Each structure stands twice: as C-alpha cells, then as structure tokens.
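ok so for the tutorial part 2 we go from a plain amino acid sequence to predicted structure tokens. step 1 is just haveing the sequence, like this:
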Amino acid sequence: MPSQDCRALGDPYASSLTVNMLCVLFTDAGNNVHAMKSGSSLVCRQGDTWWQHGVATWSKDSYVNATQPDVHSNVVKYLPWIQQNIEGLFQPLLG
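step 2 — the prediction. this is what the tokens look like for a chain of 95 residues:
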C-alpha cells in the first residue's frame, strides 16, 4: 500500500514508518491467519521468477489481518549494501 495511506492510519505507522520501509496489507488474508514473523521474506512472482521485495520488520498486531498492514524493510533500498557484502561469496550456476 502507498506509504502515505499507511501513515494516515495513525500511530505507530505515522511516527515509525521510514523511507526504507514498505507497508503491506494482506487484503485476502482473512482474520488472524498467522503470526507475523520478523525476518520472514516478502516475495512476489513475476512470470517464472520470484523476487524478494521485503523483510518483515514489525506489525501493529501480532497476526496478519486485512485491516492492519505489516511493515517490511524495503530490500531495494539496501541493494548496494547487500551487493557489497556478498561480492565474491557465491559462484554462478553454470547450465
């Protein structure tokens, strides 16, 4: 969901959301689907490829629901740091 819509929900979103975070509202989650786990991945599929967009950081409630968004670190904002710190650690898979 857009950051301005998330901030409009009031605290803690208005006071704690930074430019390095994403608000994610699981509108089809139903009520109390599962506990939000800090550090879990937010991934989206584009064609046959899965892309990581976020890392779960915090939630107003301790469960996923359709009214309160979860907050994730925005992976794109950290790509330079990630690339710098994994450089040379992985070998490409050769087909």
